[in-house]
Design brief:
about 280 residues; mainly alpha; 13 helices
Length: about 280
């Protein structure tokens, strides 16, 4: 066998091993969601009697549909706030030259390095003072703490890649600031907007600590907290089948978004990888 064939076989084996490593937990989650009772503790790679009632019980035992709606609303608000603020910040950081601009960029990125628990007390006081406790808008406001820095960083990279001559030509033709933003910048920034928006959506969809701290009832509670609060007959008898069914249900929207926008995500990540 030639060296090229061996290299190709090694590449395929490596790819297969990587797929097995990443997809097996998903497969096991789906398998566990179709088991109930003692079958959950038996090694069985295919359910003999699928317990579809686990999925039905998720919505019957609690207002899980309301929790999903809350997550959609909160994640959408987070994306809108992050992209709206991040777009203007990216224009200032990518177009306006001022002293300390690079330092400011690194400071924005450094904000994401702080653990959430370190700012939890201060954020709680802020949300409570604004009257947004147990409110979906309060969650969105708190989530931009960790979604906005990444959004601004990615969009700044894209903004620097757009030639200034395009804006100058549009300005000469009579385009105002809003026309320039709507007809010139937004179409050129679309891959970056999709990438940053989807990553912000996923971060908001999966966030747990702020959602647990800043909500009290199902009126504003999101799905990660709702799943954590699923309980059984006693503390030692958790309905793992129902918990895994709920996890599978809330994972499907994220997977669907990733599949729909996968080309734009790849284009956004590669085009945004520029030297600062």
């Amino acid at each position: 066998m030639s060296r090229a064939a061996l290299a190709r076989a090694g590449l395929y084996l490596g790819a297969a091993g990587f797929l097995l490593y990443t997809l097996f937990p998903v497969y096991w989650a789906v398998l566990s969601s179709l088991e109930s009772g003692s079958a959950l503790f038996e090694v069985d790679y295919w359910p003999r009697e699928p317990a579809w009632e686990n999925y039905r019980a998720v919505f019957e035992a609690q207002p899980f549909g309301r929790n999903i709606l809350n997550s959609v609303v909160v994640a959408s608000l987070t994306v809108a706030l992050s992209l709206g603020l991040g777009l203007f910040a990216a224009y200032a950081l990518g177009r306006v030259r001022f002293r300390g601009r690079l330092l400011l960029l690194y400071a924005i990125l450094a904000i994401t390095m702080f653990p959430q628990v370190s700012v939890l007390a201060g954020m709680f006081e802020l949300i409570n003072a604004l009257g947004l406790y147990n409110d979906r808008l309060g969650l969105a406001v708190s989530y931009i703490l960790f979604t906005l820095p990444f959004t601004a960083w990615v969009l700044t990279s894209f903004m620097r890649e757009i030639p200034k001559e395009i804006e100058e030509a549009a300005t000469v033709d009579g385009a105002g600031p809003w026309s320039l933003l709507r007809h010139i910048l937004l179409p050129l920034l679309r891959p970056g907007l999709v990438t940053a928006g989807l990553l912000a959506f996923i971060a908001a969809w999966n966030e747990f600590l702020f959602a647990l701290t800043f909500t009290l009832t199902n009126e504003a509670r999101t799905v990660p907290v709702a799943i954590a609060l699923i309980s059984g007959a006693s503390h030692f008898e958790l309905p793992w089948g129902r918990i895994m069914a709920a996890s599978v249900v809330v994972t499907l929207p994220v997977v669907a978004l990733a599949l729909v926008f996968q080309r734009r995500i790849v284009a956004g990540l590669t085009a945004g990888a520029v030297k600062q």
